[in-house]
Amino acid sequence: MEIQIEPYEAKQLDAIIRLSLRAWTPVFESIQKVMDLDVYQEFYPKDWRVSFS
User: Fold this and answer.
1) Residue 26: pLDDT band by 50, 70, 90 thresholds?
2) Global pTM?
């Protein structure tokens, strides 16, 4: 497998967002399971996806 790094183009934004959500969703789900819910909601009051947009 060859990896090629290319300059960012605005037309790639949707694909980058989809990839990021796929990558980070399991991470935040596991954090939420082990962290006290009140503490988690202090960090991400609306949703972690909103916090990073």
Assistant:
1) very high
2) 0.70
